[in-house]
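Readers of this paper often ask what the protein records in our data store actually look like. An entry from our holdings is shown next, in its original layout:
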Amino acid sequence: MDYPNNSYYLNPAFGAAVEVRTGLSRLGVTRSLALVLSSIAILLGFSYGILVSNSSANKRTPLYDESLVTRFFSEASAAVVEITVTRDNSNQAYAAMGTGSGFLIDNRGHILTNNHVIEGADKIRVNTSKGRTLTATLLGISPADDLALIQVDPSDLGNILPLKLADSDKVEAGQMAVAIGSFFRNFNSVTVGIVSGTGRGPISPLSRPIPDMIQTDAALNPGNSGGPLLNSNGEVIGVTSAVRTPAIQGIGDFRIGFAVPSNTIASLLPDLMIAQEIRRPWLGISDGPISEQLSKTLDIKYGVVVTHTLPNSLAKQVGFQPFSAATNQGDVIVAIDDMPIHSVDDMDAYFNKKRPGDDVTINVVRNGNNLNVKVDLGKWPDI
């Protein structure tokens, strides 16, 4: 662009009027040079900013603290054992073998594991981190919670420190979760993930939901069952269980990892110390959560619909009425002992605080009427 003598233009970069002369006096050259240098400085500043930004973006943030994991693995793994069971089979020329994991919970040789790991076992052996194979005695079991306690001679364990139970009520989604176990007979292998969720209720081998289960994406495989799920302090937040989910619409088999919460373990330990089978309370109904449509129709904000009463059950005896969608008649459980019931898991969690033989008052809405039904809880039956 040509500029007339003694004309001015506004430099958009600086917002200042700069005199431009066609003859370019010494002062004009100086100002032009200053303008060029200033522009270069600005460009260099932008370039530096972009470089710093790209450098920061390319930095890799570790998924977890490696030194933390290696440290508490070295401390905790000694208390984790591999469990081998033998189940005699009179119809075969050989005995069936099974493996799983477990962990030491005290200095008296008590080892916690899953019930399905030792179920039906004729012999239980424990392989320790020190290379010893010990014979274990079965103590208490709780099939409804998939928990079992076995014991070895504590003098055979040396100075192995037991693992501590954490408060599972404080576990939150997103926290680090570390599983230790002998999956596929690979002794004391470790996998790292996070807590994917809490308050889950997968079904136990007795076809009963296990309330408040912890879900994790730490890889769990056959042999992990019964091992500990640890938090970032190396404390046990649950006992791991690998749940296999059947193929869904061509997706194929996949696994979702769950752990029985440590607070459930703590509440059952006194009873597990005794050689007995712990039975959870049983009402004898099939049920399901109330649908949004039915909630509006019946003007009930929450509840559990009674879909079926089982033969020879307490529910059958006291006259619970299965709900009919065709007539909108039947029972909806809205509370137990005046505690609101929003889901099936709520019912099981409340019943877990009771024992068979305890009496409860079940608050029911039946055909638009509010009823209180008193029941003495039974024992959860074998399937």
